[in-house]
Amino acid sequence: MNNRQKQIGIDRLIRLKWLEYTSKLVLAGNNENTVKEDLEQFLTTSFLASSKTKRGSLSKTLTILLKTWLHVHQNIHLLRDTGLELLQSANKVDHIAIHWGMIMTAYPFWSAVAGQVGRLLCLQEHVAANQIQRRIREQYGERETASRTAGRVIQAFVDWGVLNKTKEKGIYIQGRVYSIDNPRLISWLIEASLHTRSNGSAAIKDLLGNTSLFPFRLTHMPAEHLVSMSPRLDLLRHGLDDNLVMLREEDQAARNEGIK
User: What is the pTM of this model?
Assistant: First the structure.
C-alpha cells in the first residue's frame, strides 16, 4: 500500500447529488471561488450554519467534493478531464458510474471499502457493517478512524442506492445494480481502478470483475479494444487468456512521483 492509499481522507457522508452538482459547476467553466461559493450555498440546507459542528462538517465536505472534481491529484488530471467529457453525453446510469469511478480514484479508501463489500456480496446475500469495518481495520491498521470512516462510506453506499438496509441494524443487502456497456466508459473505469492499485496493473478479468465496482456489471470486451479507448493504458500479453492491463510508463512514472 503506497502513501496515498494509506490515507483515509474521506471522513464525511458524500451524497451522489452533491457530486453531480459539483461536476456541473466545473463543466460550466466556473472559477474556483465561484464553484466553492455555489456549492456552499447549495449545501446550506444540509449543514446548518448555526452549529459549529455543522459548519466544520460542511467545510470538510466541500474539501472532498472539490478534491474529487476540481482540485484533483496531479496524477489523475487527465482521468478527471476525460470523466468530465464523458459526463456531457452520458445517461443517468453512466453518470453514477463516472462519479463512483472519480471518487474512488480521488479517495482510494472509498475503493477499499467498496472492495470489501463487493467480496462479501459475492459470497453471501447479506453483509454486516462490523464485518466490513473489521476487514478495513486489518487493512489500515487498528485505527478507530478507519472503522468510523468505513461506516460513513457504507452510509454513502445506502444513499446512492447500491446497498439497502434490512430490518436488522447494521445488516445490508445488494441494492441497485447497473449494467455498463459503453466501451469508452468501461475503459475509463478500468483506468480509474488501476489508479487505486499499488502497482498500477492487473489482469483484465480482475478489472472487469473488480469488487470495488460492485454496483456495476461491466460488459466483457477484448482487452485490446478497451486499451485502445485510452492513450494512457497499455497491454501486456501473458497468454491467450491472461492479458495484463497497466498504466502507460509515463503515467505510471507521474503516478509514482505523485505518491512519494
Answer: 0.91
